[in-house]
Amino acid sequence: MFEQIQPQKYYMQIARQIKELIKDGRLKIGDKLPAERTLAEEFGASRATIREALSALEMFGLIVCKSGQGNFINAD
User: Measuring CA to CA, which residue among 75, 47, 46 is closest to residue 63?
Assistant: First the structure.
């Protein structure tokens, strides 16, 4: 009757938080996200986890990663 719940991966929790900030309008199209190191410190996560979250957001088209420039919001 019941399904076992699965703990969610850290990178998905981070991606969800960033997605919510976009949805709430606190991050707008063209805004630059903080550097990986800064995000890692703020989330209390490793840079590898941050990279996974950013990669997931990029796959969904919410951000665009520009090499050498940073990560930018791509969608409302």
Answer: 75
Residues 6+ away with beta carbon under 8 Å from 51: 36
Q: Which residue has the tokens 């088209």?
A: 61
pLDDT (tens digit per residue) in 3-47? 665 667 899 999 999 999 999 999 999 999 999 999 999 999 999
List of residues 6+ apart from 56 with CB closer than 8 A: 11, 12, 15
* Integer Cα distance of 47 and 53 in angstroms: 10
pLDDT value of position 5: 57
Of the chain, the end-to-end C-alpha distance in Å amounts to 38
